[in-house]
Amino acid sequence: MSSKGLKISKENEDVLTTESKNMLVDSDFDTFKIYKSGTLTLNVPEETLQEEEKEYTATYNHNLGYKPFVLPYVAVNIGNPATYTLNVSTSPIQYEVLTPYVVNDVANFQIPPGPFGFGPNFIFENIKVETTASQLKLVVGRTTYLLSGNQVKFTASQANLYYTIFYNQADTEFDLLS
Amino acid sequence: MSRIGMASSKPNENVLTTADKNLGWSSGFRTFKICKGVKFTSTGSKAHSLGYAPAFAIANPNLGILGMPYVYVDDTNVYCTSVSGGDVYVFLFIDPLDE
């Protein structure tokens, strides 16, 4: 630990002797520092598919040169029932997405309780947020496995991601206690 | 807000009178203080040496075939039970998890 720095302790704690966990401010440690917040919008077209995997991507070029920490976390969203309805009685099958939708609202939603496949057929949209050393990516993928010549018609949709990129590097090891 | 401390406001805001949301930084508020970045290349545990369960955040929540990496802590270790999306990095905070 450094012997010089800025420290402010919690009320009723002696800043010279208290443990680090009782500090409000302690320059021995790192903090989250926001680099950029904003909105990524991805328009996905209407299309009819049979047995395909397609991806659509919107990007923001942060150009930090390393992979930054980003919020929100976005888990895989497989046919989130909050955003879609599936009508299998029509031909082609209708996959209608409630649009526009906010990715943050469904970010932690994982495999839904309801069916996203029926029989040997399989249909879903998924949402990913990926970061690289230069870009933040919002990716919407469509996957269909349909037998017997079935087709599915996806409606057009718009995904909006409210993101925060931090200066903090996501993929690094360090120890500020030693 | 405490009566003694330090604060800085956003541009064009009076630090003495502006609403808390317009402060760029203030010692009157708790902030997470990052003390370690821990890397998992496989599932398992790593000692954190804090003696209490610290707050934490997954730094790179890569999706794998098993979904998001699952991470938890206790007084001794930080644990990772899935690395199906690749190496997992975890920020550990000096701040206790239960405060």
How would you explain this protein's 3D organization?
The complex is a heterodimer of chains A (178) and B (99). Chain A is mainly β. Chain A has no helices and 15 strands. Chain A folds into 2 domains: 1-30, no CATH class; 32-169, no CATH class. In chain A, strands 3, 6, 9 and 14 form a 4-stranded mixed beta sheet that branches. In chain A, strands 4-13-8-7 form a 4-stranded mixed beta sheet, with no helix packed on it. In chain A, strands 5-12-11-10 form a 4-stranded antiparallel beta sheet, with no helix packed on it. In chain A, strand 10 (117-118) and strand 11 form a beta hairpin. Mean pLDDT of chain A is 85; it is low at 111-115. A 3-stranded antiparallel beta sheet of chain B has the order 3-8-5, with no helix packed on it. In chain B, strands 4-7-6 form a 3-stranded antiparallel beta sheet, with no helix packed on it. In chain B, strands 1-2 form a two-stranded antiparallel ribbon. Chain B is built from no helices and 8 strands. The A-B interface holds A 8, 11, 20-21, 23-26, 29-32, 67, 69, 73, 75-76, 110, 128, 131, 168, 170-177 and B 2, 5-6, 27-39, 49-50, 52, 57-61, 63, 67-68, 87, 89, 91, 94-96, 99.
SSE layout and pairing:
The complex is a heterodimer of chains A (178) and B (99).
Chain A: E1 7-9, E2 23-26, E3 34-44, E4 47-49, E5 51-61, E6 68-71, E7 84-87, E8 93-97, E9 101-102, E10 117-118, E11 121-131, E12 135-145, E13 152-154, E14 157-169, E15 174-175
Chain B: E1 7-9, E2 23-26, E3 34-40, E4 44-47, E5 54-58, E6 71-73, E7 77-80, E8 88-96
Antiparallel strand pairs in B: 1-2, 3-8, 4-7, 5-8, 6-7
The figure for the number of domains of chain B is: 2
- Structural class estimated from helices and strands of chain B: mainly beta
Helix proportion of chain A = under 10%
Mean pLDDT of chain A: 85
**Cα gyration radius of chain B (Å):** 18 Å
Task: Compute the number of strand runs of chain B.
Answer: 8
Low-confidence blocks of residues of chain A: 111-115
The geometry of chain A reads as elongated
- Structural domain tally of chain A: 2
